[in-house]
Design brief:
Six copies of one chain form a homohexamer.
Chain A: E1 2-6, H1 12-25, E2 31-35, E3 40-41, H2 47-62, E4 70-73, H3 81-87, E5 92-94, H4 95-103, E6 110-114, H5 120-130, E7 136-141, H6 146-151, H7 153-169, E8 175-179, H8 187-194, E9 198-200, H9 201-215, E10 233-234
Parallel strand pairs in A: 1-2, 1-4, 4-5, 6-7, 6-8, 8-9
Helix pairs in contact in A: 1-9, 2-3, 4-9, 7-8
Family (chains A, B, C, D, E, F): Belongs to the HyuE racemase family.
Protein name (chains A, B, C, D, E, F): Aspartate/glutamate racemase family protein
InterPro entries (chains A, B, C, D, E, F): Asp/Glu/hydantoin_racemase, Hydantoin_racemase-like, Iso_Racemase_Enz_sf
């Protein structure tokens, strides 16, 4: 089975890190293909960038030339998953939701530890819409930007560990979700420091996507995610258009 | 004061109708400027089209060359409002929210009557995120597409009236919101048939936008809607880029 | 257009301050009439006083001899709005709701900063019933009584600013609502100290009331706010009765 | 122990019926005193009348000359309970809440069957504020006014039974609350017709009030229901004042 | 009337203490019978022990040889009440719910102060299912195990008082529920230290059970709590079976 | 990897059917072991039977002599999962939750179609506690008992299809969960009749359990699901005890 794992920003090294992390947990026989958007921001840390990413993900996925079995949208708290579901017949898994639904099998409450404070409301909103917020103890920010995770790995560990401890001790989280596509490396350190299970969204999404494919299940097409009606669309796909 | 009223689809005649409707209720001294996206679908009836519209609205607004005091996003249940709020310093008013918050001053519960069944979940999700759903009795679909409202005005009236009656009688709505940017014309007929106040989102948004401007209030910039951080963005604005 | 702005307590100087504040934002052509209840408490800081105020407001409004276009109930967290809506044909706007619905256009979450701690639950209850609580980060008390706002303006600024800062920093509010009819004067100081938009309920209510009148909308009469059925009522209106 | 059972309307015969119903379940040694407001409507079927009743109940209770141990506010869905709690040291029990909290010991979901459709939102709002709505399957209206219950007992039985059956069969209620102070007589007939437990609010309130007194518990005075602060109140108590 | 008060653990001395506490508030003519499970843990502080207790309570109640009028399940936050309701015709009152529904008559918000931190989620879950959580300010743990309450009464008072004060001051609780079957002794000390009403679940349950019996009300049998269908059950009742 | 799939009733043929269904979707290398409780009811259709099953499942799992990697509790809407989580170090997956969390990846809303009407509230309660109810459109009963599914397969298909259609058409479900451990056989027929994805809880649970094991994740032990404290437990395990 082939799973497309789509980064939401244009930073290639992050795509590679995400794909490597996905491969580390994929079943034998699962091919992980990392995709990088052709346009958008080099990191997504707000709504404008996230809306750009939403379309950039749809653009890069719909122009992917080979067959595939599932798509993982590898951005935490980002827009766009519903659009992909309309355009595709294969299952689509968002890592924000994958982390949350996985964490809910592991503890009574979970927290998300993410990058900048400004992305907290985006994540909260995605969880609310997904109906996965009832057991969310908190979404906490480490104060580090997305790209700082890569450039300052030691500071990243320290900041994520500090917030994870607060989540466990003050917010009564029993599980921590790493709230960014590029945090899988931190799993071990945060787990050691807090003593609770750590869920990386990309890895959780691989397991869920594989499961859906194995069960022969995909997006329902009767209502919300029915294919777009035939109509005149200008400027799409972006990669091939100049408005 | 100048208010940009931005259609979410590429159908010029609908932009004109929306702008005319806005002008009908604007205060003396308020200039209404109708804008049509440069790309996207000729009607928005689902998530993919709505995500396209989100960016197309940001694109056309940010490239508008004159000063303005407020922006109205004239699509019902559409994505994108949060992105606009990050990019702009002036107030942004979404008609889905404008209709709902206005209706809540007029009755204990309100219903929305919209176009196709498939757009119902989009509207429900927008109201939930906006925190304006607690007094929403129902979102009902007339079964008519967006463009059929214009092409078959008589069928439109009939279908909207029928669903509005159901909303009042079965769902106990006391106010009806017309759930599409292009429905203002129906106000009188639906009001006559149901005996309840009818709220058109575009008109409600004009009143709210004027009020915000008059009060000197605009989007808070401390967290969720802070301006995007300086970073490398590829392919934006779309109107000027080829990916 | 004429808007009645009704104080909920019997302190004339507060009525005047409220009316002046309303006039400062009213459109040209809008006449603001301040009304003071003929009975009740000189400040409303609890349920008993608020229930008295509810009737006192209905009493003074229904005996107002001239025509008017809208009514603003200028008490924060007070009872009575639903009764006025039954008795009147014109729109009724409560300042608690006006502040909240306005704040929701400006930020992801808002807080209310009010007077005494004992009034916090009243405000929370009003927001819950109004269905405007989902995005309320907190309702905080400054510890100052209603009349102290007038008598100790400096302490008032200090206390309100302190709580507003806490609301922004700890509760993640992005907008502050001034939770008392007589706080409009503080707008500038609190805004300067916190850097977030400040919403005064009276001023917000003026904008909303004007908007409703301009849109030709008023209270739905089909169910909850239908006029009282004809029946024997003893002792009403109070101003004319001795029980 | 002496319990004041206060009618919310001015119809003496209803006060007598309510008091008789209360006496039928009171423990030996409990004296039930029925009180009728000195002003207000002869039946409460809306917000204006309910706000009048709120004060009329406070008026008649606070001028009652003898000692008493608890107060029951015998109106369904009415305003005012919180005011009474501020003014009194003894426990206050509202029959809307008493019926609901009792029904919740008897079945998974309960419904309320009341008088006119226009009172449904009042009851829903009271249950929501009381935090007793989560297991409420529905509030249904029989279409009969309060006074018709007395004047047309046969029609009343028929209409209440019909709605109770609907509540059980369609809304999955397992318990029915009789949603009016004057419905206790119907208990047997509705029970026989539906096969589910029927809760009369007045009777439930007697049991709860007796229990609170026996346990030595009364209203907390630390915050919401602290006694009113000393201040200047004009026109109160109404019975002794002319504004 | 005879009420069975069933301890959830096998510690006889706790059964006696619970029964004595119940007798202290029972009406004249009410006989309190304390029952101790024949199997299970000597204290319930988690889900496994609570599930054991659930069956042990059903076992000891259904094999009780004399008639009785009501059953009180005297464990805080424990499983099993719904099973008892299916098996019995008399009312069943759980002390977690009894404390909460009683507290809701006394203040705007209540808190529960319990034993170990690990039991907090059990209590929260029970309150959520019971639909009694909306006005719960917090569930706080004293850090003492169930049996330490008896063995270290002084430490118990200190720890419970400390958490109760926090609940009142930080969480804005106006009433404290003692969150364990064996805490009734602490009522006076906690009340003196906090100035708010203290509700003991066992005592509250006695009042509620007596009230239900006096009103002639018992569990609805139409759906959720209908008697088990006739079928083959192996190993039940446990007291008489070897699997 | 070895996964224990535990039936909740004592009917061996149902255990076999469940295990076969699990095997049909298990990955190569996954061994499915079906376990049947040693005591309890031959079908679980209510709370008493479900509480028995809760312990019977813990009994049969904890006395299983070989190592295993995960446990699936194969009863829909049953009690007990939290107890298993305390007793075990491996992940525990409940099929009610597995079906729901899987369905949420496939459509905007899902419905559950189950056996008898009396089990509907149990399922609703389990979903509420699991925090997976926000996107549940309805839980519907086919009216057939658990064992009738096996004995009358044609009637079962007909009844389940009928309710599934209602769920899609009236409740706007986009996905159907088969609400009983023994319904996997119906998947194809219901899918064909409704055109929406059908989720069988057992199969979904296999995919989720495999995923958790592959990700190296298991139950958090810091709070709610910490192992039981050492204490005196009488009569456990049941299989080895006579009380």
């Amino acid at each position: 089975m082939r799973i497309l794992v789509v980064n939401v920003n244009t930073t290639e090294s992050m795509t590679e890190a995400i794909a490597a992390s996905a491969r580390a947990v994929a079943s034998p026989g699962t091919e992980i293909v990392g995709l990088t958007p052709r346009f958008g921001a080099d990191s997504c840390e707000g709504n404008f960038e996230s809306y750009l990413a939403a379309l950039a993900v749809m653009d890069v996925v719909t122009s992917y030339p080979e067959p595939y079995d599932a798509v993982i949208q590898a951005g935490y708290g980002e827009h766009g998953r519903e659009g992909l579901q309309e355009l595709l017949d294969v299952p689509v898994v968002d890592i924000t939701e994958a982390a949350a639904s996985t964490a809910m099998y592991l503890g009574h409450k979970y927290s998300v530890v993410t990058t900048l404070d400004r992305t907290v409301p985006l994540i909260e909103d995605r969880l609310k819409l997904a109906g996965l917020d009832a057991r969310c103890a908190s979404v906490r920010a480490s104060g580090l930007g997305v790209l700082e995770l890569e450039s300052s790995p030691e500071r990243a560990v320290e900041a994520i560990v500090a917030q994870s401890r607060e989540a466990v001790e003050r917010d009564h989280a029993e599980v921590i979700c790493l709230g960014c596509g590029g945090m899988a490396e931190l799993e071990e350190a945060v787990s050691a420091a807090t003593g609770v299970p750590i869920v990386d969204g990309v890895r959780a999404a691989v397991a869920i996507a594989e499961g859906l494919v194995r069960l022969g299940l995909s997006t329902s097409k009767v209502r919300t995610y029915a294919p777009p009606r035939p109509k005149q669309v200008t400027g799409w796909p972006f990669s091939a258009a100049r408005v």
